[in-house]
Amino acid sequence: MDFIDPHIHMVSRTTDDYETLARMGCVAISEPAFWAGFDRGSADGFRDYFEQLTAVEPRRAAQFGIEHHCWLCINAKEAENVSLSREVISMIPEFLDRPGVLGIGEIGLNKNTKNEATIFLEHLDLAVEHDQLILIHTPHLEDKYQGTRMILDMLCDDSRINPDRVLVDHVEEHTIGEVLDRGFWAGMTLYPVTKCTPDRAADMIERFGGERLLANSAGDWGVSKPTAIPDLIFQMRRRGYDEALIRRVVYDNPAEFFAKSGKFVQPVR
Q1: What is the pLDDT of residues 211-267, one digit of tens each?
Q2: Which of 11, 32, 81, 186 has the largest CB neighbor count within 10 A?
Q3: Which GO terms describe its molecular function (predicted)?
Q4: With contact defined as beta carbons under 8 Å apart, do 258 and 266 qualify?
C-alpha cells in the first residue's frame, strides 16, 4: 500500500532510509523544521538549515521517487532564546514561496514556558499574515497534557485561526479527544518506546475512527523508526481493519490536509 509520512526528519537519516521507505511504499513525506541535535547559535545557522530543507532534501528524496515537502519555523526547544527566535521568524518569509514549503511548523511548546508561548504566538502571526498551514509540536511525557491544553487554548483564543488548517501532532490517549473535538487534525507519532506504538495507534483508530487522523514516524535524532507506518499498516491488517480505513489514515488524510496549502500534488504512480 502506498503511504505518506507527514512528519519525518530526514536530515537525521541516511540515504539508505530513503531507499528503504521507497521500497516499502512511501510516495511522499513532509519534514518539519526542528532541533538539530544541538542549539544553533545564530540566524545564519537556520538560514543554512532552511536551504537544506527546501533544496537539498528534495533532491535526495527524488532519487527514489519520493516527493519531499517541508515546514519552516524555529522549534520550541530553541524558542527560549527570544531574540534569536525573532531573527529567524523575520527570515522565514524569504523561503515560503519555494515549491515544497507547506506552512509553518513544527511550532508549539517544549517545557511550557512563557518565552516558548511568546514565540509560539509570533509564529501564529506569521502563519496568518502569509496564509500558511500550521503544524503543531506538543510536549513530551509529563508536560504533554498541560502543554497541549495551553496550545489549544492559544489557538482557539485567536479568531483568525481556522482549526481545519492546523495539524496537532504527537497526540496520545489523553490528548487526542480534545484535539479532535476542537476541530483540529491530529497526528499520532509512532515511536518504539515513547509517544505511541503502532499497537496503541491502532487502539486510538478503533476508538476515534479515521476522520482527521494521521500517523507518522518522526524519524529523528533519537530512538525512532522511519518505517513505523508500514508497521501500523501491518497491525491494522492483523486486526482485520478495512483497507479503505487503513488507506485513509496513511494516505488520504495527509494528502487532503497538505492539499490545503495549494502546493501539494498527489504523487503519480
Answers
A1: 999 999 988 877 789 999 999 999 999 999 999 999 999 999 999 999 999 999 877
A2: 32
A3: hydrolase activity, acting on ester bonds; metal ion binding
A4: no
CB 19 within 8 A of CB 59: no
Q: Tell the residue number behind the cell numbers 530526514, with chain if given.
A: 10
Phi-psi region of 214 (alpha: psi -120 to 50; beta: other; left: phi over 0): beta
Phi/psi for 40 (5° steps) reads: -75, 150
Cβ pair 88, 119 in contact under 8 A: no
Q: Specify the amino acid at residue 238.
A: R
Strands 166-168 and 133-137: parallel
pTM over 0.85: yes
Q: Where are the domains of the chain?
A: 3-259
CATH number, span 3-259: 3.20.20.140
DSSP state of 18: H
Work out the angle at residue 144's Cα, subtended by the Cα atoms of residues 142 and 148, and round it to the nearest 5 degrees.
150
Residue 113 grid cell: 514556558
Peptide bond preceding 106: is omega within 30 degrees of 0, i.e. cis? yes
Q: Is 73 helix (H, G, I), strand (E, B) or coil?
A: coil
Asked whether the beta carbons of 151 and 109 are under 8 A apart, the reply is yes
Half-sphere exposure (CA, 13 Å, Cβ side) for 242?
7
